[in-house]
Amino acid sequence: MNVLMVNWGWPPRQSGGPIGYAADLCRQLAQMGHQVSMFYAGDSTFKRRPFLNIRKEDKVTLGSLVNSPNRYSNSGYPLRECRDPQIEGLYLDFLKKTDPDLVHIHSLIGLCGSIIKLTKKMNIPIVVSLHNYWFVCPRGDFLIPPSYNLCSGPDEGLNCAICLPKESRLGRNLAKAKDTVKSLLKRNVGVKRKLQRYLMWVNGLRRRLPSVNLTEHLYDIPSAIPDSALVFGYQFRERYFRRLLSEDADLIIAVSRAVKRIFVQHGIQEEKILVLHSGIKVAERLEKLASQAKPEVRDPVIFGFFGPVQPYKGVHVLIDAFNRLPQNSARLLIFGTGGSDYVSRLMRQAKSGVEFRGAFDDLGRMLTEFDVAVVPPIWEDNSPLVVLEALSAKKPVIGANIGGIPDFVQDNVNGLLFKPKDAEDLAEKMKKIIASPHLVQRFRRNIKRPKSMQEHARDMERVYAQLCSKIKKRDTSFVTETSNVLGV
């Protein structure tokens, strides 16, 4: 089968769970003998003109839309996210070159929604995977800055216009230059790691400054009434993407039950959405490493966080919770990097026992350094990759009872769930582990390994084949029948 994927980014130039997942799926399908290509945005140069850069990596044909008119954070340009002639032209060129049997869209960030419409006009089956909420929330996370409260939705474009005002031309040009520098740095992992270590050193010096309250505003939004044209633009965007998903996508894959629930609440037909959990490339390797590790729980117990050190990941909630524990009763290791201001605030707030380890390159080795993983996001995190990685390594998870986390973490079975954004409740769950370390052993025995990427690719292979067959027959019972076949 000839499959064309569409996404934001390709590693290592861009990083993140959905980017790594889609790249791993491409490589796995290619190894299985399929013809696979990827059209993506995210690469940037100091030239202004958009162009298509075609190359081949790991048997996958890559079509990079360089200097896309749409940025990752495309504040104030909702209509351009619906349609853009330059993006459409370059996409059609790549589509004709690859001539796929099926198009699988993972993200349209940096691209435009009309890609779906163009694909439909060429009678090519379309699968859309929902890795975030970008189709119904231009931010992708339903978080309202600066409060971190969850947004109820676009509200006919008004909430979006307030949250994402139009950037000035100067601000947009400066942001593009910053994106270009970041893109160039990420191509050289060695330079990137040196820069990250330097920033961690700087943050360590800033840690000596007086502590601040982590609930202080980290973002600012304008207090002025939003422009009516911008409100209309976001209103149009909301309705346009709803129609694309409802009418033009042949199948929608939700990576967790929460994702399906939220999209149904925003007007997408329930019968069109298939819940299918993702697989991870390192599942089997991490399970093997876990079987070789010593099973004893450390004294004191060590909790671990790994991933982007960003506000939406709730690291400030974790620091607050750890500060409530009895002194010297536990340790906390934080692996990852993030915004310099946010990280320095965390460092100044953290009490003794918290270690900021920075970036890591060896996932397996990093996971051996703690006993229990903590995943505290404050948003409806779709299907956190860190949960799958932790469980693969037989690490029990204390997770926020939000988003896709409850799909994988069963309370008091293979981990514990706590109330989102509630540092006190999280502290109580951590105290439970400290008081009864034998729970860690019991949770480990109950952990079932998540699907490997090879197993997941087999599922996707069946989904693709069945979808193409059903479309030829004009059969609308696809989601129900496929759910039965896959056992989901």
Description of the molecule:
The structure is a single chain. This protein is of the alpha/beta class and 488 residues long. It is built from 18 helices and 16 strands. Strand 12, helix 12 (340-349) and strand 13 form a beta-alpha-beta unit. Helix 3 crosses helix 4, helix 7 packs across helix 12 (340-349) and helix 11 crosses helix 15. Mean pLDDT is 89; it is low at 214-223.
Uncertain residue segments: 214-223
> Looking across the biggest beta sheet, what order are the strands in?
3-4-2-1-5-6-9-10
What would the average pLDDT be, to the nearest integer? 89
CATH class of the largest domain reads: Alpha Beta
Count of alpha and pi helical runs: 18
User: CATH homologous superfamily of the largest domain, by name?
Assistant: Glycogen Phosphorylase B
Determine the structural class based on helices, strands and strand pairing.
alpha/beta
CATH architecture of the largest domain: 3-Layer(aba) Sandwich
| CATH topology (fold) name of the largest domain | Rossmann fold
Query: Care to count the β-strands?
Result: 16
What portion of residues is helical? 40-55%
Short description:
Helix content is 43%, strand content 16%.
Topology:
Blueprint: E1 2-8, H1 17-31, E2 35-41, E3 51-57, E4 60-66, H2 78-82, H3 85-98, E5 102-105, H4 114-121, E6 126-130, E7 143-144, E8 149-150, H5 158-163, H6 169-186, H7 189-206, H8 228-248, E9 251-254, H9 257-265, E10 273-275, H10 283-292, E11 301-306, H11 315-323, E12 330-335, H12 340-349, E13 354-358, H13 363-367, E14 372-375, H14 385-392, E15 397-400, E16 415-418, H15 423-435, H16 438-446, H17 453-473, H18 478-486
